Structures are given as structure tokens and as C-alpha cells.
Amino acid sequence: MIVLGHDVVGTGSSLETIGQATAAELPDVALVIVGEHSDRALDLIKEIVAEAACPVIAILDVQDRAFVDRAARLGIFSYLAHVDDPQEMQSAMDISLQRFAEYHALEGAFGRRAVTERAKGILMERHGIDEQQAFHLIREEARRTNAKMVDVAASILGSYRLLSGGAASTPAQREAQSRESEGSVE
Questions:
Q1: Cβ 53 vs Cβ 23: under 8 Å
Q2: Are 103 and 109 in contact (CB under 8 A)?
Q3: Contact by Cβ (8 Å): 54, 29
Q4: What is the mean pLDDT of residues 109-121?
């Protein structure tokens, strides 16, 4: 990688320290060189992917379809076999970095969507309105306060937890709790 102008960090990291090294060094990409001990390489890939700090590229000395299949299920973003051309390595790194950025953007979008959906559910329950009306309320509040919709939705979730005593409950759960408390009073 020095040929390409990149800094190499964490060379020869062990399975026990690879997660910490990845989190501490924050590399742009992790290269796992696969030799005779492909199970060890799979373990390293698994640890690095669990940290989700960077994309992983497996570098194989021989083409091994079974290894690539297993590594793909663990989350590698690319692999190379017989790396002779530095530009091929750079291309794999560029593609992996682009896909990694897209993956995180998509993951963030799903997270924002989940927050908004839960907030709409709270508004629907509290106000007896439909999904479209709940969305409209969130959007209008975001416009009125010049805030992002996800921030308004997050504040709805936070206040709901606070007002409901820390644990959000459904109407059915509250009804069951009410019946239990009425039964114990008699």
C-alpha cells in the first residue's frame, strides 16, 4: 500500500486486538491478507466488521470461491486474488469506500425512518388520527420550528417516554394494568 501513498497501520494485529486497533486507528479500509489459515482470516473479518469502522477487503493468494462466499456473508466489501497491479488495489479500495459510505447513509435513513414511524404511531394513538395526519403534524412542527423532521419525531419519542413513566406502553398494556389495579382495590 505504500506504493499507492497510503499509510499502513495495525500490521499483524491479533484476533484479540483487531477490534480495538480498528476503533483506535480508524483506518479508511482494512485489508485482511488470507494465507494458509483462512479460518483465522474469517475471524479477523468478523471482528473488524463488528466494529463497523471501515470496509474490509480480503486479499487472497489463490482464488478460493468457498472462502469468498463465507467472507461475503460476514460483510467484506471486496476481495482481490493475485494482486499484481497497484491500480487494481486502488480501484478495489475506491469501490469499497464508496459502497461503505452508501451503506452507512442507507443505515442512517432506516434509523430516521424508524424514529418517524414510532412518533407517528404515538400521535395517532394520542390524537385518534390517521397516519397521514400524524405525518402532517410532524412536518408542520418541523417547518414552524425550523427543525428537521427526525428531530421533531425524536422529541416526541423522548417526551412520550417521560410522560408514560419511562417505558412506552400500548393502549392494551395500559388497559391490562388498569384492570389489575382495579382488581387489587376491591
A1: yes
A2: no
A3: yes
A4: 92
Predicted TM-score of the model (pTM)? 0.57
Strand partners, 34: 60
Q: Are strands 78-81 and 30-34 parallel, antiparallel or unpaired?
A: unpaired
In the DSSP assignment, the letter for residue 4 is: G
3-state SS record for 100-125: HHHHHHHHHHHHHHHHHHHHHHHHHH
State the Cα–Cα distance between residues 52 and 39, nearest whole angstrom: 20
| Core vs surface per residue 9-35: b (16+ CB within 10 A) or e | ebeebeeeebbebbeeeebebbbbebe
Amino acid 122 reads I
Residue given cell 463488528 in the structure block = 50
Contact yes or no for 47/71 (Cβ under 8 A): no
Torsion of CA 154, 159, 160, 161, to 10 degrees: 90
Of the two residues 156 and 21, the one the predictor is more confident about is: 156
